[in-house]
Specification:
Elements: H1 2-17, E1 28-33, H2 34-42, E2 47-49, E3 54-58, H3 64-67, H4 75-82, E4 85-89, E5 101-102, E6 107-109, E7 116-117, E8 123-125, E9 134-135, E10 137-140, E11 143-147
Antiparallel strand pairs: 1-11, 2-3, 3-4, 4-9, 5-6, 6-7, 7-8, 10-11
The structure holds FE2/S2 (inorganic) cluster.
FE2/S2 (inorganic) cluster binds next to loops.
Length: 172
């Protein structure tokens, strides 16, 4: 009995000491192919990965110059933007509700207290204290990997690098 317990402990310890081996939330997650992401983005929707609890959205190349002026956009986040994408954590930065996508407004809108974020997760309205938190994203071999072990805080209120306005009726 105790031998079995120690074995299980050893496996858990090894997983802890070797974070690269983790594939669940809290580790590096292959969220899918660029082709599948482009299919979702082509229908004006984010590409969602449930394991990563993350929306992948496109970042417009034309706005990279604006993004580089925002100190909250750290080098790992900018690298993802330069590859054309942003990985947004679904958890509202107000009190933690899951924020759904609103197809008509083309914004993320939180049903709990009405915080709203534009397509790239910059705060537009409501009580949220900043934009949506996010993860570093890399593209290799046609697949996207994000690092959910290192939450990068969203940009401050007032950040508006893309100028994207509400595109239709709000959901909330
Ligand atoms: Fe999203 Fe309060 S938890 S607005």
């Amino acid at each position: 009995g105790s031998g079995l317990g120690l074995g299980a402990f050893g496996v858990a310890a090894l997983a802890f000491l070797w974070p690269g081996a983790s594939t669940g939330f809290g580790g590096k997650i292959n969220v899918g192919s660029v082709a599948d992401a482009q299919t979702a983005i082509g229908s004006k929707q984010p590409f969602y990965n449930a394991t990563a609890k993350t929306y992948i959205v496109a970042y417009p190349k034309a706005d990279l110059g604006n993004a580089k002026k925002v100190s909250a956009y750290t080098p790992p986040i900018l690298a993802g933007m330069e590859a054309g994408y942003v990985a947004l954590y679904q958890k509202c930065v107000h009190l933690g509700c899951r924020v759904p996508w609103c197809q008509s407004s083309q914004w993320f809108e939180c049903p709990c207290h009405g915080s709203k974020y534009n397509r790239v997760g910059e705060k537009k309205a409501g009580p949220a204290p900043r934009g949506l938190d996010r993860f570093a994203l890399t593209v290799a071999g046609g697949n996207m990997t994000i690092d959910t072990g290192n939450i990068q805080l969203g940009p401050p209120i007032g950040t508006n690098t893309t100028g994207q306005q509400q595109e239709g009726p709000l959901c909330v």
